[in-house]
Please model this.
Amino acid sequence: MQVQEHSTVREGLVVGLLGAVVVALWYLVVDAAAGQPFQTPNALGGVFFRGDANPGARALVPSLILGFTLLHVIAFVAVGMGLTLVVHLASRNLALRMGLWIGLVVAFFFLAGLTYMLTAATAERVPPWRIVLGSLLGVVVMGWYLWRRHPRMGADAPLGAEVKTPRHAPGSPQH
Model:
């Protein structure tokens, strides 16, 4: 197997862009299927840039759509770089794999809270399932890309087996 050069910034940029594109395409497909293309970024852009929390249909505002799309891409690139950094650290020191799992659990609860907040802020114009499924698709694609680029992360040892329990000195209390 050929040794690959891994740049955290370059790889994180690719990972983040992959996630952002997948989620944006998800929103576009779901909105188009409902007969309202670009409604999700329009509603979320209204919340982020205008504080618009009033229920009801809204006219599409290109500046809100573009603004939210830019914010969306920046957020995903930042998450992609952070995730790539953690994967690079964990691939050098397999004991850090547990930290990666804990980070994913924390990220899930953050996403759950953010989804609830956005659903309430858009007066349910953007249903929670749309955000959760889109984000899940994005994370799966990001994880798949990193998994393929870092095969050592799937080491044969079970999670936690890379840390050895220290031996107790003879005669010392063992709890």
Notes: The chain has five helices and no strands. The chain has a mean pLDDT of 82.
